[in-house]
Design brief:
Shape: globular
Distance between the termini: 32 Å
Strand order of the largest sheet: 5-6-11-9-10
Largest sheet: 5 strands, antiparallel
CATH architecture of the largest domain: 2-Layer Sandwich
Number of strands: 17
Number of helices: 8
Structural class: alpha+beta
Radius of gyration: 20 Å
């Protein structure tokens, strides 16, 4: 009997799928994916389960779980199998004296998911270091190498989030032996850092204070991390938001706003929940929706929709969820 996805995802919600196929190697990952696709069944590719909200009924789904691991280094190029734990990979780069992903310490999930979301934090994004990925295309069933220029990276976005379906089998990074943008990282972290190890330590401490480092005993970490992306608006629109609201000017002249500030200043405080629901905002960080112990996927969806409505009504901003919703959900 397969495990329910509530046991395999960081939000700890989700029903039991029809089957779970665990791929311990690149070749098995390709074999399982092709077999499921040819069957015509609904399917889900699952890594660390950190960026999905799985529906309460998944009985019609087959799950392909990436568990292929391995890290190979050749100079500053590092090739990582898709099933490798992301934070373990970051720890490896720091131990090797390499820089480029240390500010992404503590982010849950697997390496194969990193390009999909273009994960980022504290002034770094994986788009800055990814050179290539190996990709099994759902539409053609063919394996190819995609260069970074083909991945159409954007803020928490990529070609994969915009409809290019398939499976990433490995990711290649080009890192540096010389730390870069330390001034930017010092500013983002609020403390001086001088090398990748110091950046990693500072990031892990900061994320822990916000309930963003997984801890079985802390329900504030039973989440998908940041649930909404920080909205990017025009400079003109940003002037309608109070001056004390955090904002960051973008290279194109637009302005990124703080989703957490918008949520808290629309009347939703940390720890807010709907009546009788086990889904609630984190008590440490207003941008995380958390499972307080026995939440259902539908309760998570209901709270997310309510937050969107409150922010839209108060500020005229549409918050976009970061995690993927899998299964039968109303559109949010």
């Amino acid at each position: 009997m397969p495990k329910p996805l509530s046991e395999l995802t960081t939000m700890r919600v989700g029903g039991t799928p029809a089957e779970i196929l665990v791929a311990h190697s690149r070749d098995l990952l390709i074999e399982y994916a092709l077999g499921v696709w040819q069957s015509g069944d609904d399917w889900l590719l699952l890594g660390g389960g950190s960026n999905i909200v799985a529906a309460d009924d998944l009985s019609g789904f087959k799950v392909i779980k990436t568990d292929n691991r391995g890290i190979e280094r050749e100079g500053n190029l590092v090739r990582v199998q898709a099933g490798e734990n992301w934070d373990d990979f970051v720890a490896f780069t720091v131990s090797q004296g390499l820089s480029g992903v240390e500010a992404l310490s503590g982010i849950p999930g697997c390496v194969g998911a990193a390009p999909v979301q273009n994960i980022g934090a504290y002034g770094q994004e994986v788009a800055e270091t990814i050179t290539r990925v190996e990709f099994l295309d759902y539409s053609t069933h063919e394996v190819s190498i995609l260069d970074a220029s083909e991945l159409e990276f954007g803020y928490r976005d990529s070609v994969f989030k915009r409809g290019k379906l398939g499976v990433i089998t490995w990711v290649e990074f080009e890192l540096s032996e010389t730390p870069k943008a330390l001034d930017r990282l010092t500013e983002a972290l609020g403390r001086e850092v001088s090398n990748p190890a110091e950046v990693r330590q500072a990031v892990l401490e900061t994320r822990a204070l916000k309930g963003m480092v997984l801890n079985d005993a802390d329900h504030d970490t039973w989440s998908c991390g940041s649930f909404f992306t920080n909205p990017i608006v025009s400079d003109g629109f940003s002037r309608s938001i109070p001056g004390e609201a955090p904002r960051w000017l973008q290279e194109d002249g637009n302005v990124k706003l703080s989703a957490a500030w918008l949520i808290e200043n629309s009347g939703l405080s940390k720890g807010f929940k709907l009546a009788d629901s086990q889904a609630a905002l984190s008590t440490k960080h207003a941008l995380a929706i958390t499972n307080r112990g026995s939440a259902t996927a539908e309760q998570v969806r209901e709270l997310a929709s309510f937050i969107q409505l409150q922010v839209a009504n108060r500020w005229g901003v549409n918050l976009v969820p970061e995690p993927n919703f899998v299964g039968d959900f109303h559109r949010i």
